[in-house]
Amino acid sequence: MTDTPRPARRWLVIALAVIAVAAVGFAVGRFTLFGNSAPVPNAADIGFARDMQVHHAQAVEMAMSIYRTTEDDEIRAVSYDIATGQAAQRGEMFDWLVQWGVPQAGDLMTWMQESDAHDHVTAPDATSDEVYASMGMASDAELADLAAARGTVADCTFLELMIRHHEGAIPMADAVLDLGSVPRVLQVADVMRTNQSAEIDAMQGMQQRLGCAA
Predict the structure, then answer these.
(1) What integer is the mean pLDDT of 185-192?
(2) pLDDT above 50: residue 1
(3) Long-range Cβ contacts of 173-178 (<8 Å, 24+ apart)
(4) pLDDT in tens, 55-98
(5) What value does the mean pLDDT of the chain take?
(6) What is the C-alpha separation between 49 and 28, in angstroms, rounded?
(7) pLDDT at residue 37, as a whole number
(8) 113 contacts: CB under 8 Å, gap ≥ 6
(9) What is the reported pTM?
(10) Which of 11, 25, 38, 56 lies at a CB distance of 3.0 to 4.6 Å from 77, suitable for a disulfide?
(11) Rg value, the chain, Cα
(12) In whole angstroms, what is the distance from residue 74 CA to residue 8 CA?
């Protein structure tokens, strides 16, 4: 039997651990968040849940795109980890908004205006493209380039876009930790900040290994 390559084996262990923690955390979160004494969410809790669903949706799209085409075991493993982990978080955030009885969509990033933990574009007259760019999200053209690319070019494109994407999410987590009120929201944001910071470091190492242009 052929041994699993070391990088893939390492990321498989990480992925399984993250999924297990997420499953336990989700069960605990539902029990504590929606019990008889559930805390009342504020604008930051609600805005974070809405905007991070949008943010996560693109991360899942990019991760699945590269997962289907890459021949690099380490990138396949981390993309699987990102896709499954962020899809699970999106589902939980969707459920928060249902339980809170508020719409799933709202004005992007306006909830962050009271926090110093970001430099995102939140002005009322900002275009959607400007807001998305400030969140670290890829443009339609960049997503098309990723989908069309193959080999090392595709791997490096994915790493560049996903690192930037994660770098846009961390200030959002910082802001809700500053402004939010629901314990489960704060717990998820703290875990997200820790995990995505670690993934940035790992992906930067992959860029060096592959010789991606700076």
Answers:
(1) 97
(2) no
(3) 174/115, 174/117, 174/118, 175/44, 175/48, 175/111, 175/112, 175/115, 175/117, 175/118, 176/44, 176/45, 176/47, 176/48, 177/117, 178/44, 178/115, 178/116, 178/117
(4) 999 999 999 999 999 999 999 999 999 999 999 999 999 999 99
(5) 84
(6) 18
(7) 60
(8) 122
(9) 0.79
(10) 11
(11) 18
(12) 5
**Geometric angle at alpha carbon 159, from 110 and 168, rounded to 5°:** 15
Tokens read off for 148? 């069309």
Q: Which residues of 185-196 are buried (b: 16+ CB within 10 A; e: fewer)?
A: bbbbbebbbebb
The end-to-end CA distance of the chain, in Å, is: 38
Task: Round to whole Å and give the CA distance between 9 and 38.
Answer: 40
Which tokens go with 2?
A: 């052929």
Q: CA 189, CA 210: separation in Å to the nearest integer?
A: 31
Contact 136, 169 (CB under 8 A): yes
CA dist., res. 45 & res. 176, Å (int): 7
Residues 6+ apart with CB under 8 A from 150: 69
CB atoms within 10 A of CB 214: 5
pLDDT of residue 9: 53
Per-residue pLDDT band at 8 (split at 50, 70, 90): low
